[in-house]
UniProtKB/TrEMBL annotation:
Keyword Metal-binding attributed: yes
PROSITE patterns to which the protein is assigned, alphabetical: 2FE2S_FER_1, 2FE2S_FER_2, FAD_FR
Key words of the record: 2Fe-2S, Flavoprotein, Iron, Iron-sulfur, Metal-binding, Oxidoreductase
Gene Ontology molecular functions: 2 iron, 2 sulfur cluster binding; metal ion binding; oxidoreductase activity
Protein name: Oxidoreductase
InterPro entries per UniProt: 2Fe-2S_ferredoxin-like_sf (IPR036010), 2Fe-2S_ferredoxin-type (IPR001041), 2Fe2S_fd_BS (IPR006058), Beta-grasp_dom_sf (IPR012675), FAD-bd_FR_type (IPR017927), FNR_nucleotide-bd (IPR039261), MRET (IPR050415), Riboflavin_synthase-like_b-brl (IPR017938)
Domain 2Fe-2S ferredoxin-type: 233-318
Protein's UniProt keywords contain Repeat: no
Highest taxon listed in the record's lineage: Bacteria
Gene3D superfamilies in UniProt: 3.10.20.30, Nucleotide-binding domain of ferredoxin-NADP reductase (FNR) module (3.40.50.80), Translation factors (2.40.30.10)
PANTHER family (alphabetical): CARNITINE MONOOXYGENASE REDUCTASE SUBUNIT, NADH OXIDOREDUCTASE HCR
Species assigned in the record: Marinomonas arctica
UniProt cross-references to Pfam families, sorted A to Z: Fer2 (PF00111)
């Protein structure tokens, strides 16, 4: 973990605070590409992931923007209590939501605070002189972080604002936007879980290939009521042959942790990808939103923080 200090606190919109994090000694922080996030260890000990919301202008600074979520499990509320001079520990940047190295037209679609990883994508695409358009969906300009800055950005001509509570704007017409680009573009979408699912479903219906639909969830969608009750199964460790019982009320991660098998876990809801693990044998019962449909179908990977097993034994590449 890297120690940093809160250098500035800025209110970016209703309920959204932007933090400027700097290295303690002024030295450069690790470089990153658009779409990256960092793990932040808050003073209480909570570990949370937040997207880096701007490309670095000066190497010693990172910036994040955080919405105070009414459904917060404590992380966003604690972030909003931070003040200048507070110290934190962060990870080096990780990127599970990168821009694809292609000259295809890019369609960026943000829902609310989902703008945070997409803003540096727009900056990077503009810098590389690659074609793109940026659709920002929010209730109003007052709730849309960075909306004023984006209207003045070097790529302002590529911005499309969709404010559902502004009569002259209205909601984004997904069919219109997505149907114009299904054959030759890359889609990047981030925002609330239901918003992402709606965009991806519409894109799929319009013929977008799975490999050109990229998304990042900040939280897992509501539990599907059609998912059956959890059942017990066994998990096998490939390297040692050890077999452990996973009861119906336990996660794979909990069982591994209780038996001294280390596995890095962060979100515990199948969103961040930190605990991604290879599967040697057995069929996973996927409960995550991180892996793609193709990756789910392959059965080669599993998220032990939330997923389970459809077979009596699930052998993991650990």
């Amino acid at each position: 973990m890297i120690p940093v200090i809160v250098r500035n606190v800025v209110i970016e919109a209703q309920g959204v605070v932007r933090l400027v994090l700097g290295s303690l000694d002024g030295s450069g922080l690790p470089a990153f590409e658009a779409g990256a996030h960092i793990d932040i260890k808050l003073p209480s000990g909570l570990l949370r992931q937040y997207s880096l919301c701007r490309l670095q202008v000066e190497a010693q600074y990172y910036e994040i923007a955080v919405l105070k979520d009414p459904q917060s499990r404590g992380g966003s509320t604690e972030v909003h209590r931070l003040k200048m001079g507070d110290t934190l520990s962060i990870s080096a940047p990780k990127n599970h939501f990168p821009l694809i190295d292609t000259t295809r037209h890019s369609v960026l679609v943000a829902g609310g605070i989902g703008v945070t990883p997409l803003l540096p994508m727009a900056q990077q695409l503009q810098k590389m002189d690659l074609p793109f358009e940026f659709h920002y969906c929010a209730k109003s300009p007052d709730t849309a972080a960075f909306s004023s800055a984006l209207k003045r950005a070097s790529f302002a001509d590529k911005m499309h604002f969709h404010f559902s509570q502004v009569a002259s704007s209205g909601r984004m017409d997904m069919v219109d936007v997505l149907s114009r680009h299904s054959n030759h573009s890359e889609l990047y979408v981030c925002g609330p879980a239901d918003f992402i699912n709606d965009v991806l479903l519409q894109a799929k219906m319009l013929g977008w290939p799975e490999e050109r639909m990229h998304r990042e969830f900040f939280a897992a969608p509501a539990v599907d009521e059609n998912v059956g009750e959890n059942t017990a199964f066994k998990v096998k460790i490939h390297s040692t042959g050890e077999v452990f019982d996973v009861e119906a009320d336990q996660s794979i991660f909990e069982v591994l942790d209780n038996n001294g098998v280390f596995l890095a876990v962060s979100c515990e809801s199948g969103v961040c990808g930190t605990c991604q693990t290879g599967v040697i044998d057995g069929i996973p019962d996927h409960r995550d939103v991180f892996l793609t449909d193709q990756e789910h179908a392959s059965g080669k990977l599993v998220m032990p923080c939330c997923s389970r097993s459809k077979t009596p034994i699930l052998e993991l590449d650990l």
